[in-house]
Design goal:
mainly alpha, 2 strands, High-Potential Iron-Sulfur Protein, Chain A, single chain, 2 helices, about 100 residues
């Protein structure tokens, strides 16, 4: 009898985990899953001039149907933002200094 209770508990727990995973997956795209969280990248919406997303090679400007985004930081970002993963665009005169 004790063995059945253990199995039930395990199966109930596994069912809850599957539901939680499905709900999380519904809100996180596969693309975002491979990206760094904004908090981990120390992303700020207003970075110093010369170290902003708009001057970073990883930044993708907003399009009509999509907000601006980053190739390595998850979620929407803004052109005036910045993070510790900032890399200057090729041929950019900005660079140097710390974020």
């Amino acid at each position: 009898m004790a063995e059945r209770i253990k199995r039930r508990s395990v199966l109930a727990g596994a069912g809850g985990a599957i539901v939680a995973n499905a709900l999380t997956s519904a809100f996180v795209t596969a693309e975002d899953a491979s990206k760094v969280r904004q908090r981990a990248a120390i992303y700020i919406p207003q970075a110093p001039v010369g170290r902003q997303c708009s001057a970073c090679r990883l930044f993708l400007p907003a399009r009509t149907s999509q907000p601006a985004q980053c190739l390595v930081v998850e979620g929407p970002v803004v052109a005036s933002g910045g993070c510790v993963l900032w890399e200057p665009r090729v041929g950019s005169l900005t660079g140097g200094g710390q974020p």
